[in-house]
Design brief:
Number of domains: 1
Distance between the termini: 9 Å
Strand content: 35-45%
Order of helices and strands: EHEEEEHE
Largest sheet: 4 strands, antiparallel
Shape: elongated
Length: about 110
Amino acid sequence: MKKIEAIIRPFKLEDVKVALVNSGIVGMTVSEVRGFGKQKGQVERYRGSEFTVEFLQKLKIEIVVADENVDAVLKAISEAAKTGEIGDGKIFVSSVESVVRIRTGEQDGSAL
């Protein structure tokens, strides 16, 4: 099993959700996060004054999938979240040793 964490632009959430559902994903966790990458924030104007927003608003999507579904999920997220501009985000993949569904006690593949 793999855990996929994707940092995306907030306005791309619906596109990514639809792409994941079409890929067979039935559950995900979404968190509001703030951060910066190569763009190191952005300059904003408010009432004639310029100021730098160092931490930009992003969303983090977390999904745990079977190993055989990783490539399809990566493709779905990449295509749906891409704008072609700096700041589109990143996708991280890490191994998951075990999963337990609290309600039923199911473990690993059947808990997904």
